[in-house]
Amino acid sequence: MSEYGFEDPQSSADFLPIVKINCQSGRIVRVDRQQNADGMWDKTEVDISQVFQFLPDFTHLEIGHIKIDDNGIDFHMQSFADWSSAGRSRKPPAEGYRFGFRVPILLAKTCAKEPDDVRHLSHVGISVREGISRIYADYQQQMEQNPRGLLPLVKVTRFVHKQRGRFKNYEPEFEVIKWIERPDVFDEALAPEVDEEPDIPPMDDDDDSLPF
Questions:
Q1: 51, 157, 186, 200: least CB-packed within 10 angstroms?
Q2: Residue 117 confidence (pLDDT)
Q3: How much is the CA Rg of the chain, to the nearest whole Å?
Q4: Which H or E run includes 139?
């Protein structure tokens, strides 16, 4: 059972592990999995709030809608290129879906469980989407200057307590440390499909000037 009261859609080594950014508590956790004696997969959450650094694989950025209910979790995602060429629609496929993103990330040594620790980060919260979207805009600009496609090494410098409408959240501030070449480990890790649970904060207004 997840912390949101839902059964995990599947407990399997075929799914990439995840990182959660919780804007209600201002915490970032790495969700580790261990296989027990019965062959089932147990999960342990490790707080990495103070040491979180990651390399997002923007070549596999997905945009779409996410829904969590009593039946589990459902992702309706497509690549950024497909979403952009199709008109950048934010209209949900049905009631209960929230607009969000999903991107593979490689954890830095400061917060990784093991070497080549590739995970998924997904979110529907406006502050996280805006932060990642700004970095993606920098990535697009960098791609025009450097066709090799360098990726940003990103860290969360702090959480800022802010009021958005009726809600108060801890909003992460992202900073690019440097740009590096895309490692081959992403290609090795991204064969399986992923169906994991993102953080679901209250709904907020969007900034239409950002890429997504």
A1: 157
A2: 97
A3: 17
A4: helix 126-145
